[in-house]
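for the writeup, i need someone to sanity check this before i put it in the appendix. the sequnce is what the collaborator sent (i think, or maybe the updated version? ugh). structure was predicted straight from it, no edits. if anything looks off just tell me and ill rerun, i have time this weekend
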Amino acid sequence: MKNFHKFIAALVIFGIGQLAFCQSPSEMAKREAAFYTIVDVPIPDHVKLEVGGLALTNEDKLGVSTRRGEVWLIDKPYGKNPIYRRYAHGLHESLGLAYRDKDFYLSQRGELTRLQDKNNDGKADVYKTIYSWPLSGNYHDYSYGPKFKKNGNMLVTLNLSWIGHGASLSKWRGWLLEITPDGEMTPIATGLRSPSGFELNENEAIFYTENQGDWVGSGRMTHLEKGDFAGNPEGLVWTGEPNSPLKLKMEDIEKDSGLSLYEYAKKVPEMKAPAIWFPHTIQGISTSDILYDTTAGSFGPFEGQMFIGDQGHSKVMRVFMEKVNGVYQGASFNFVEGFSSGILRMIWGSDNSMFVGMTSRGWSSTGKKEYGLQRLVWNGKIPFEIKTIKAKDDGFELEFTKPTNKAIASKPETYQITSFNYRYHFKYGSPIVDQQKGLVKNVEVSEDGLTARLTVDGMRLGFIHQIKAATLKSMRGEALLHDTGYYTLNEVPGGVLKSEPTERMNAKGIVQEKRVNEMPLTWTNGADQQVVIGTKPGLKYDIEELVLERGKKIELTFNNNDDMLHNLVVTQKGKAAVDKVGDEALKLGLDGADLNYVPESDLVLVHTGIVAPGTSEKIFFQIPWNAGEYWIVCTFPGHAASMRIKLTVREST
């Protein structure tokens, strides 16, 4: 089990369960609400609006496709009394929707479909198959899109199947496809695992988001061009087809090279390194849709940037992208959290508010509702934010939405930089690896206080750079709303990195004395009691209550028969203790992986490490506590509220 002691939990958006718990608005959500308001779009009780796709018509009606195979047309979606009319039904789990020339287009599990209302009665009477693809019958065979190109062709993406790992069980699973209106298909790129979100920029460059899983260390966004390989080799099973744009084979990819994806791409010319990484659990866990800010300043000071939905964390992130030496890269930031369910789709309304479509059934999320439709509305106030981060050959340039306090902004100690990476391997997810502190040597602040030019030692190509400015203030004394950005550094201007190296920080060797995996030598007669605890779907242990006697020597085996990662932590007496331990685990940030997401706290009595799916860990401890009610909890971020066991300690008989 020590091989997994730093493993970040494996959670995916589709088919694999995720965190699910009810929560009141966080302190951050309350702060964000001072600038951006989340507004409910009312849904009738009889409509199960598990949103799969969103599209506006020419009449400003909102089309919504659902996982239940329906398309709803909503009139007056901006008001308090929207009017719902079912436009189509009998479809097979549509997870995308587009509108063009009075018709709707959508991807079902097995085909790209055009819906037409010939008699203008508000209901589709023609369901036309444009192009179909085979299905394996696997539950994970999701299909997404379409997105229209300027020439009228459509792009769709096909999810991998799931058999304990992603697999391409039927043709073109794990691929990006281009399809003409007449049904001619051209495969574009592969290496995709769970490509729910994809979009084209103004130059028709294609980007897609990916979720942590096998071959995917953390959530990320990749720029896809024809012939690209994005990293998951299962789709390479189809490169022998005559129309495949690449000839790379599955057997050409090592299962564990020990390298990052960026480094491995140097060995495989077809491989495309991500443009953006989203650090797992620190930002999101299940990246979904991509939405460009095309509002010309009507949604705040982020015109031209990208907003990224996250299904598991019910939040929206923000991305600033730049092109350096012909390569896309940039920085990701948190933006707004606290949505009612798991975000899957986002589009702009005619009033420049953001429609957010959500679903969580089976793909649980921090938002407690099973589905939802909301609007995100900017109230006109500008938050103090890091607006952009741009790479330089010896540092970074930060631009702010408001003038800074120059006395604070000019101090190098105001900024903390940490670089880190993820492994590229067959395993599900990756620990944070090669973590290293950078050193800000000098800061130059512009005359207007809107930019800070940082000279940095310790920058590294191919690494994610956490840039934090927790103490920075605006000229008027405001703290940053979000004080951290994550820059994915693939290139620097001029092509030569001039940042000086720093001494490597050792992130290993952390001792956790409350985790004992070998029977103590003093237990000459073995354990007094053997306890076995497992898991079940829905973020649950397989028991809800446990009774142990004070003073007994316990051998506890934790079997993780779930398809995600968990730990097991015993906390001090009382519900307040377990709640606090769960909250502290959420705040561990980059140190969480090293600590198995177990905070250094007197409230923690004993614990396992992170336990991988299909494996187990054994720990040994003696019950020294007073009689009373204790708790066993999984402290991976987001699990603590629902994954608990009440532990009653009673006096020995």
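Residues 575-586 form the longest helix (12 residues). Confidence is low (pLDDT under 50) at residues 1-23, 504-511.
thx in advance!!
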